[in-house]
Amino acid sequence: MKFSHISDTHLGQYRSKKEREDDTYNAFKQAIEISIKDKVDFVIFSGDIFDKAQPPNDAILHMMEQLNRLKENGIESYFVLGDHDQPKVEQNAIHWLYSSLTKVSHHLGDGNPVYFKNVLLVGFDYHSDGHDIESLQEEFKKIDLIAKEHDGHKIIVLHQGLNEAHSYAGQLNANDLPKNFTYYAIGDIHEKFGPKKYGFLGGPLAYPGSTEISSTEAIKETKKGFFEVDISSAEAIPKWIELDMRPRFEIKTSADELHAKIDEVISKIDEKHKPLVSLKITDVHDWKSIQQEIARLDEHILDRSTNLIQVSDSSVFLDRPNVIDDEMLRLSVDVLGSEQAANFAINELLPILVSGEIKEASQIIIDNFEKFKKEKKQ
Question: Which helix (H) or strand (E) holds 29?
Answer without folding.
Answer: helix 18-37
